[in-house]
Specification:
single chain; 413 residues; alpha/beta; Peroxisomal Thiolase, Chain A, domain 1; 2 domains; ten-stranded mixed beta sheet; three-stranded mixed beta sheet; 14 helices; 21% strand; globular
Length: 413
């Protein structure tokens, strides 16, 4: 059957692990109840640092031998993919393996293994003979998706998409496009990150003056707060089962929502500083594709990392697009889980999807002192808001100026 860009694509399964939960139900409850997953850990050469680590069973769907050969990002991906399939009511054994694709957004991959092996090299007096023979397959960029492919026996197109912190949304967008192109009949799509395993990312943010800290680690990630001081690095993953609507209906699948619009663009301005105008253009283009206007959007989930320039630029962009809409409510998620990098957009979308059924908009982690430069109409702060939600817009922006917007609508037959 020939398909096109007009083919409707829906979400029928969600699998995730976040610093405060290991499934969608618990994740949703954590967000509604203001439960943080941020703790602290010792980072080489830096001491204790606020961090968002996940606590899932790595061996639930993976043998110990394969985990030893693989990566943390791979184990996250495998866990999330299995959980998503189970949630969708699909059996892994029943998948048409060559018509199933895996598309995982990542921020970076391979530096965790390389940094640790170089550290061990110096600890072992530069004896290169002790270097792991698993190094090469562990560090190639397609490793997370490839490990899922090996685990599930999927022989369709499987790869990762490097798009910095916009990658979670882009993995989903690409999965949708592959379904519309009729390249696959089922897509496992989303984003993953193993960032807390690398010393370099912590040191890099600290050298930028952008590493979040607080004597209470649960307050180290404070997006939009006048007292915020940077990013809390986190790991995690969220994988979605995507199907064409007709296929989902044929098998009687539950439908979380339908992909209504999207857009990806680039700032072409700076390595790390965001560009407000390009963000405005990205949001407007996504709504144009969805054939809706700003007043139709019920939730805007901010990227909101907790950096000074990032929060202010995004707030300016959102005010420019949604400032006149009384219908649109604004929330953010990183205060609860930190910044999960390549997994961020996918996790944040997952946390908002249940709004279609429970009629609630989760709050930002309580912002004690909203930065006046980040003030926005209908900013949800403290308690959830009850509302009939029809459209969710998710913002994700990344280094080197990559922007991605994803709009999900409540499924209506």
């Amino acid at each position: 059957m020939k398909h096109s860009s007009k083919t409707r694509v829906v979400i029928t399964g969600v699998g995730l692990t976040a610093p405060n939960a290991n499934n969608l139900k618990d994740f949703r409850e954590a967000l509604l109840s203001q439960k943080s997953g941020i703790t602290e850990m010792d980072v080489r050469y830096m001491g204790k640092v606020a961090v968002g680590n996940c606590n899932f069973d790595e061996f639930l769907y993976q043998k110990k031998k394969m985990r030893r050969r693989g990566t943390r990002a791979g184990s996250i991906s495998i866990y999330c993919a299995h959980e998503a399939l189970i949630d969708s009511g699909l059996s892994a054994d029943a998948l048409v393996k060559d018509r199933t694709g895996i598309y995982l957004g990542i921020t970076e991959h391979g530096n965790v293994e390389t940094e640790n092996e170089i550290y061990e090299l110096h600890e072992n007096k530069l004896d290169a003979g002790l270097w792991s023979h698993h190094h090469n397959p562990r560090t190639v960029a397609n490793a997370p998706a490839g490990e899922v492919s090996l685990n599930l026996g999927i022989t369709g197109p499987t790869y990762t998409i490097g798009a910095a912190c916009a990658a979670g949304n882009i993995g989903i967008i690409h999965g949708m496009q592959m379904l519309q192109l009729d390249e696959v009949d089922l897509a496992l799509a989303g984003g993953v990150s193993e960032s807390t395993g690398t010393f370099g990312i912590f040191a890099g943010f600290k050298s930028q003056g952008a590493l979040g800290s607080h004597e209470d680690p649960t307050k180290a990630s404070r997006p939009l707060d006048v007292d915020r001081n940077g990013i809390v690095v986190s790991e995690g993953g969220a994988v979605f089962v995507l199907e064409r609507l007709e296929d989902a209906l044929k098998r009687g699948a539950k439908i979380y929502g339908e992909i209504a619009g999207y857009h990806i663009n680039s700032d072409a301005a700076d390595f790390v500083l965001p560009d407000t105008q390009r963000q405005i253009e990205c949001m407007n283009a996504a709504m144009a594709k969805a054939k809706i206007t700003a007043s139709d959007i019920d939730i805007v989930n901010l990227h909101a990392t907790g950096t000074t320039s990032g929060d202010i630029n995004e707030s300016e962009a959102v005010r420019a697009v949604f400032g006149q809409s009384d219908n649109t409510y604004i929330n953010c998620t990183k205060g609860f889980i930190g910044h999960a990098m390549g997994a961020a957009g996918a996790l944040e979308l997952a946390g908002n999807l249940p709004s279609f059924t429970d009629g609630k908009i989760h709050s930002c982690k309580m912002i004690e002192n909203v930065d006046p430069k980040c003030g926005m109409k209908n900013l949800v702060n403290g308690e959830p808001v009850e509302k009939d939600v029809r459209y969710i817009l998710s913002n994700s922006f990344g280094m080197l100026g990559i922007n991605s917007i994803l709009i999900i609508k409540k499924y209506q037959p």
